[in-house]
Amino acid sequence: MNALLELHGAPTGNCIRAAIALEEAGLVYTVRLVDLSKGQQTGADHRSLNPAGKVPVLVERKGDGPAFVLTQSNAIIFYAAEKAPERLLPSAAGHRATVYERFFFFLTDVIAPGHSAFFLRGQGLHDGSARLVERMFSSIELAEQFVSADAYMAGSCFSIADIAAYSIVSSVEAGIPWDRLPKLRRWYERVGVRPSVARGFQAFSSR
Ligand SMILES: N[C@@H](CCC(=O)N[C@@H](CS)C(=O)NCC(=O)O)C(=O)O
Q1: Is 2 exposed, middle or buried (0-12, 13-18, 19+ CB in 10 A)?
Q2: Ligand 1: does its nearest atom lie under 6 Å from the Cβ of 54?
Q3: In what residue span(s) does the GST C-terminal domain sit (predicted)?
Q4: Which of 71, 108, 132, 155 is the most buried (most CB within 10 A)?
């Protein structure tokens, strides 16, 4: 029996990353828009899927049995990658480890300080926020080395590392010193024209 996938979310970085992974894995899914401005993420319907009241949430339904639910964007990315062997995550141990290295570099050294800076800014802690933003941009500059010999972040093939990288780089594009980062710029253009990436970006906007 075919599984039906639903991606519940909104046009935010975490949701877009999950949508790009589903698109790149070639999976068919339905988008369920959660209107954050109306607080739908904290309503009873959404909390029955994710008690934390956050998006994205992936729901997989198979027949009459209980639905399988994932409530973390990165778990959704890995689940999509596992469903499409070799497309987003290579099986060879060494290559896979490099994909993990770059994927977690972007999560911990770029996305995490970026999200923390956003949170501090909301608290009025502008100094702390500015320092984290600086840290995020220095890490982005380090990524020039990853794409200096290869087309993608972790080698010659697109992977989940590119999904993590592209989603955050595109959100801070205007602040990146592109003149100093010619290889990163070429990588950014190469990934930006992928139809699956474009569809992932649009997943929550066209509804
Ligand atoms: N660690 C979670 C974070 C989820 C998260 O913070 N989602 C945000 C949108 S990107 C959210 O639901 N915000 C609404 C709220 O907190 O009310 C993940 O990666 O999925």
Answers
A1: exposed
A2: yes
A3: 92-207
A4: 132
